[in-house]
Design a protein that fits this description.
It is a single chain. The protein is of the alpha/beta class and 376 residues long. The protein is built from 14 helices and 15 strands. Strand 3, helix 2 and strand 4 form a beta-alpha-beta unit. The longest helix is centred in the middle third of the chain and has 19 residues. It starts with a strand and ends with a helix.
Length: 376
């Protein structure tokens, strides 16, 4: 395998040279590496720094490829013991060479196993599952293979299914009805649908999965959940998973059918908070001292997520809401935020896009404020 050297923060490693492109992976294969996802690895490192594991701090990079994520955790933190696993033997050998090159043989081991089999044989405080496409095949094994109180992080890149562009895969994989494409908060709704599927899968094993960090980057969704043993905990988590009506005509949402007669129930979605404020605070503090691959972008993303943590579900996309309701140009963003605040509706800028506001309040009241400003 031909290799090339890449560096993220203080960590350098060899990856498959055919796997590197300008904006992302050029070819899926041995030694796979996606440079565009460096910011997601920054967040993994910061989460590992901020998280207090319930037992021995053991991290499993279950689909490690060349080992970029797990190697960064080992190299950029002091306490974590890391297992890098990739079923392709040549790729596992490349990961082992990277372990040796970084001088991490005392805290990192490599495996070449089917991930589901490996997860059935042990337990880790932090499990990372970053597959190609959907993580659905690994949900159950990963949620069972993490310590009580531990973290599991999943990546999903089957965005067309989660977004509802192609509804059939979402129904098959996640047993859910995806959001209408132009429904309110549709990108956030896709993330909440994925979290809902994770919560429901955990509950099947009498475990609760509570999201502590959820974000998107380009085509990828990243979901971190804290897992807790017990049927009662699982029932509590399920209590925040439900179907809702997302109306693309009125650009509102609710548990009941829309007054316009359009829209039908979709989901089920996770309707509670998606971020843990304490974990985010710890990550932001750690970021101030860390050498990251994308320091400014990571800091901005963490700031947005911290704001979203205090808000309710389904962001307000100002431009699309006005378009759906046949109104004019959007008002200045700060004027809108001031008017919403005057109406008792708190807002924060959302990481889902520059025209999107996370808010805490009644969606109909928020839209009424927007309507009034847009028609002045």
């Amino acid at each position: 395998m031909d290799t090339a050297k890449v560096t993220e923060g203080p960590t350098s490693l060899q990856v498959g040279s055919d796997a590197i492109g300008e904006e992302g992976p050029a070819e899926v294969g041995q030694g796979f590496y996606n440079p565009a996802m460096a910011i997601t690895r920054d967040l993994t490192v910061l989460a590992a720094k901020a998280f207090q594991p319930p037992q021995r701090p053991e991290f499993l990079d279950g689909l490690a490829a060349a080992g970029a994520r797990g190697l960064r955790v080992a190299n950029e933190t002091e306490d974590w013991w890391v297992t890098l696993n990739d079923r392709a033997r040549r790729t596992a050998k490349l990961a082992q060479a990277n372990v040796e090159g970084l001088g991490l043989t005392d805290r990192v081991v490599t495996r070449s196993r089917e991930l589901t089999a490996l997860l059935a044989e042990g337990s880790w405080a932090f499990v990372e599952v970053d597959p190609y496409g959907s993580p659905v095949a690994f949900l159950g094994p990963a949620l069972r293979g993490v310590d009580d109180g531990g973290l599991v992080a999943f990546t999903a890149t089957d965005a067309t299914a989660l977004h509802g562009v192609d509804a059939k895969p979402a129904r098959r994989r996640y047993l859910a009805e995806p959001p209408p494409r132009h429904a309110p908060g549709w990108k956030e709704a896709a993330a909440r649908l994925l979290v809902g599927a994770i919560v429901r899968e955990a509950a099947r094993h009498d475990r609760a999965a509570e999201p502590v960090l959820v974000h998107t980057h380009q085509h990828a969704f990243r979901v971190y959940v804290r897992v807790e043993d017990g049927a009662r905990a699982a029932d509590r988590a399920l209590g925040q998973v439900d179907e809702v009506v997302l109306c693309p005509e009125c650009y509102t949402w609710g548990r009941q059918a829309c007054a316009c007669g359009q829209g039908s129930p979709t989901g089920p979605y996770k309707l509670g908070p998606l971020h843990d404020e304490d974990l985010l605070a710890g990550m932001r503090q750690a970021a101030e001292r860390a050498r990251l691959a994308e320091p400014q972008a990571t800091a901005t993303l963490l700031e947005r997520l911290a704001g979203e943590a205090r808000m309710g579900p389904f962001f307000l996309d100002v431009d699309r809401a006005l378009e759906a309701r046949g109104l004019g140009s959007p008002p200045p963003r700060e004027d809108l935020r001031a008017a919403l605040a005057e109406a008792g509706i708190a807002t924060e800028r959302s990481h889902y896009g520059p025209t999107r506001l996370a808010y805490e309040g009644d969606p109909d009241e928020a839209l009424a404020v927007l309507d009034e400003l847009a028609t002045r």
